[in-house]
Amino acid sequence: MQNQALSKTLSYVLRHKPEEFGLALDAEGWVSVADLLSALQARQHQVTQAQLYEVVATNDKKRFSLSAAGAKIRANQGHSVAVELGLAPTTPPELLYHGTATRFLASIRASGLHSGSRQHVHLSADPAAAVAVGSRHGKPVVLTVQAGRLHRTGGQFYLSANGVWLTVSVPPEYLEPVA
């Protein structure tokens, strides 16, 4: 299995549908590497432990983490299944960015950003990264998130292992289009 295809399969299994592969994530989203490999092979995905470790190490978005001993794996964020990633609330930078498609802008202006089927809204400290995210969904638009102001009024922010900022929602009054 090629690395990109394996990365997509891992995202599906570790973020959204572990039960389709006969797996159960623990409370923090971890699953045994041995169990994952067995489940993939049972679905005709011929994947070795070395290939799995290579995808974790080389994934440009750093979507996955291995436990210290390398016996467990999890997705760093983006789950639609309930997991507690063990992230501590963190003070964000004053400004963060969210990339989306222009077709979603009217709804976002009306009701803000919501996690939808996922546990968190994903934000970036880098506007260029936000453009790349928005481009996956159509013509991109980048919104500036007044993260510092939101945090000072009670908003909780978390920094995932791969540098993505997470929050539950962003009300519209904390958003503005990037000029």
Task: Provide structural commentary.
The protein is 31% helix and 20% strand. The strands form four sheets. A three-stranded antiparallel beta sheet has the order 1-3-2. Strands 4-7-11 form a three-stranded antiparallel beta sheet. Strands 6-9-8 form a three-stranded antiparallel beta sheet, with no helix packed on it. It is elongated and about 50 Å long. By secondary structure, it is α+β, with helices and mostly antiparallel strands. The relative contact order is 0.16. The chain folds into two domains: 3-75, RNA 2'-phosphotransferase, Tpt1/KptA family, N-terminal domain (Arc Repressor Mutant, subunit A, Orthogonal Bundle); 96-177, ADP-ribosylation fold. The longest helix is centred in the first third of the chain and has 14 residues, at 3-16.
Please count the beta strands (DSSP E, at least 2 residues each): 11
When the domains are counted, the total is 2
Quaternary assembly = single chain
Order of helices and strands: HEHHEEEHEEHEHEEEE
Q: Within the largest sheet, what's the order of strands?
A: 1-3-2
Keywords: NAD, Transferase
Function: Removes the 2'-phosphate from RNA via an intermediate in which the phosphate is ADP-ribosylated by NAD followed by a presumed transesterification to release the RNA and generate ADP-ribose 1''-2''-cyclic phosphate (APPR>P). May function as an ADP-ribosylase.
Enzyme class: transferase
Pfam family, one: PTS_2-RNA
